[in-house]
Amino acid sequence: MKKAAQTVISADKYYTITAANGKVVEVADYNTENGAAIQLWDYAGEDWQQWSFVRAGDGVYRIRNRFTGKMLDLIAGGVVDGTWVHQWEGANGSSQLWVLESTGDGRVKIKSNLSGKCLDVVGMNQDNGARLQIWQDVGGENQTWTVAEAKAVKKAAVKAEPVKEEAPKAAKKPAAKKPASKKPAAKKAAPAKKAEPAKAETVKEEAPKAAKKPAAKKAAAPKAAPAKKAEPVKAEPVKAEPAKKTEAAKPTVKKAGK
Questions:
Q1: Residue 227 included in any domain
Q2: Residue spans with biased composition (Basic and acidic residues) (predicted)?
């Protein structure tokens, strides 16, 4: 009865599997592929560090990862000491079946139902990244585990503080730039003097009007030519004075006196 109470709390809850050194069993690099390694790491409240126990018989379970949905499995269905553990999609093979055996102190041994060997830490490694294997039961600390309901880990809310600090700094920088805006105001006065060349552009518009005067001179030239031709017509009648030669008729009168 004690064994059952320690191994199963609820079928719909998730648990951590913690080694004697305080590190938990997880899927390496939160890899979702078949064959991903199983290792130890500091607990961070991540889903790939949490497991559910799916009942497969009396006291027998499949251990499924919360993040990947894949099962704790023996590579190639191995049964010899040193067979490494990985994850694999759910199958009916006995390489995914495990039995939880109480040690009497609140911890358990997790044994392969296929070989009877214990889940064990390779080389009794205490570091993050230590791999898991199966090994014959030697009663060592590296073969004992604590199965407990997974607890949420408070994520560092400190990350929000840098955001608050950066916001005021960004506001102060624009305030420092406001005094510099007076210098551009002085530069605007200089462009006002450059506006005078705009008057020269209006002179260019008057230049086309001056072009009309040469056209008027061309019209006056033809009118002056006919005026000079009219004067000789008046001078010709004045030359009619030679008609006075009619006085020659007087000698004819003298012949009548003889």
A1: no
A2: 193-209, 228-248
At which residue do the structure tokens 């407990």 appear?
Answer: 148
**pLDDT for 222-244, tens place per residue?**
444 444 444 444 444 444 445 44
Q: In this structure, are strands 98-102 and 51-57 parallel, antiparallel, or unpaired?
A: unpaired
Please state, in angstroms and rounded to a whole number, the distance separating the CA atoms of residues 88 and 32.
9
Evaluate whether 91 touches 77 at the Cβ level (below 8 Å): no
What does residue 86 show for φ and ψ, rounded to 5 degrees?
Answer: -140, -175
Cα 204 to the center of its chain, rounded Å? 54
- Please identify which residue in the block is written with the tokens 């008729």: 249
Q: Which regions of the chain are under pLDDT 70?
A: 1-9, 155-258
Report the length, in residues, of the chain. 258
Domain containing residue 125: 2-149
What φ, ψ does residue 183 adopt, rounded to 5°?
Answer: -65, -45
Which of 127, 131, 122, 151 minimizes the C-alpha distance to 21?
127
Residue type, 127: D
Minimal CA–CA distance to 62: which of 86, 96, 38? 96
59 lies in a domain?
A: yes
For residues 71 and 127, is the Cβ–Cβ distance under 8 A?
no
**Which pLDDT tens digit goes with each residue over 199-220?**
444 434 444 444 444 444 444 4
CA angle 230-232-236, nearest 5°? 130
Q: Say if residues 92 and 113 touch (Cβ distance below 8 Å).
A: no
**Kind of pairing between the strands at 98-102 and 60-65:** antiparallel
Q: Which tokens hold the place of 203?
A: 């002179």
CATH code of the domain in which 117 resides? 2.80.10.50
In total, how many domains does the chain have?
Answer: 1
